[in-house]
Amino acid sequence: MDGVNHSVVSEFVFLGLTNSWGLQLFLFVFSSMFYVASMVGNSLILLTVTFDPHLYSPLYFLLANLSLTDLCISSVISPKMIFDIFRKRKVISFGGCITQIFFIHGIGGVEMVLLIAMAFDRYVAICKPLHYLTIMSPWMCVFFLVAAWVVGLIHSLVQLAFVVNLTFCGPNVLDSFYCDFPRLIKLACTDTYQLEFMITTNSGFISVGSFFILIISYIVIILSVQKLSSAGSSKALSTLLAHITVVVLFFGPLIFFYTWPSPSIPLDKFLVIFDAVLTPFLNPMIYTFRNQEMKVAIRRVCRQLVSYGKMF
Questions:
Q1: Rounded distance, CA 95 to CA 183, Å?
Q2: Percent of the chain with pLDDT over 90
Q3: What's the pTM value of the predicted model, to 2 decimals?
Q4: Are residues 58 and 140 in contact, defined by beta-carbon separation less than 8 angstroms?
């Protein structure tokens, strides 16, 4: 990385979230609690889907991969943010900053495609139930997973290809607690207007485009649900509401970051906390507590883990 970038700047300094000790303490407790809870919740979903044979279905395969992306995205931002809260000098190396950006956008792209795949899964399950296993075959699930990672990696690498060649000669202060393209490229020593436009258009178009694809998909599914019996309609709507909630929670902050012309810096920071800490915690809660089959499977796996523990 150092061989490619001929920068004077070797590290960046974060201004952090706030200088108020009371607010710092609150953010430390809040972020730590939800980070640990999201790690436990998503790990439990991964463990349950992996070892419970009753959950070997396309929906739970996609849900397990969504939990994996939540584990990754929260671990990219949250640990350093929590570690830096009380530090007077919050720094990150140039390589560390680029690495953080790579994973944020790469994993974010993966999660977008997975959410679209889950919407497609629900459409097939509700609108074409007799052909569900044929359409959502294991090969189709693998295709969605491979496509998600390919899209995520391309989305991240295309933007990084331009950023790593920029020259950073000072200043090196980021009014944030994590690295991302919009603020980082403003510190470059060259005119970056076109690059800023390209990055904003890229991330904004993907976020807004994916969001509208999902919303239109769920509108079509909800209209189809109206034709079902009352019992089937109620269960399907419950599942759809859970999916729509996840979509809104995930895309809301992203659309604000990349499409709002003059974002408010404090609001920007706290929306990132919501997206990086709270959303990965809420995803397993929403899917778990609104899904009776998942709750039963989690209890079954927990009993097995307890019994294994007693053996040792």
A1: 16
A2: 22
A3: 0.86
A4: yes
